[in-house]
Structures are given as structure tokens and as C-alpha cells.
């Protein structure tokens, strides 16, 4: 079973095909085995929504990242946004779906597809306001106020 996972991983790494010496090829194979083994554990830089909420309530900032330019379709704004929780020490946690693995054993980043979805998510974790970037690559950072933190604990 793990051999099949290993082959799948190697087939997805295009740089493997460019390796010329046997020593370099062995190193590339070892690197890929390590990547597969890391997926068997919970990734340290990702969290699901309940843990994300806890981090934000404990003082982490929320970074809203726009992955695709927003566009208006009818009365709604659409695009792709992801969320990160960032501590004052620079520790970053990316929000992922509750389904921890896809069929290929990958972790799936939670993407929100509408501005309304972003606002609803932020309001659901305690924010009374939302700052949403509308251009690809842009990001906004917000932190719960002490009043919002107190209200989210109540």
C-alpha cells in the first residue's frame, strides 16, 4: 500500500524526470518518500475551522488572501479567498476543510467563493466588521477587538 503511494508521489514530481545521476535520483526518491510520510501526520501549519476559531479567540490575527480577482455577477461578488491565522510571533496556520484528506491523500485548503461567504465566515468567528480584498494577491489583516473577544466567549 505505501509503495503505491510512493509511486503516485514520484509520478507527480516533474523534476524527478530531470535527475541524471543515480545518486541524485536516489536523493530525489528519498525526498519524495519523506513528503509522503509527512502527509500521514497532521500537517503543522494547517487547521480546521474549530481550531481556527480558537486561535482567533486567543489573539491570532485573521489574514484574508484574495487568490483570484473578484467580479460582480448579478448582485453578488465572486472570487476565491483563503484564510490564515497569524500569531504575533509570526506563526501561520492555514484554514483547511474538515475533510482532512482528498482521495489522493492531499490536504484541501478551504476556499471561499463569494464576498458574502467571507463576511459570513468572519462574522461567525466573532468579527463585527469585514475587510475583504478584491484583487488577486492582495490581503487584509484584522484582529478581534477586546469587546469582540469577550462577546465570542459569552
From TrEMBL:
Organism domain of life: Bacteria
Protein known as: Uncharacterized protein
Lineage: Bacteria, Pseudomonadati, Pseudomonadota, Alphaproteobacteria, Rhodobacterales
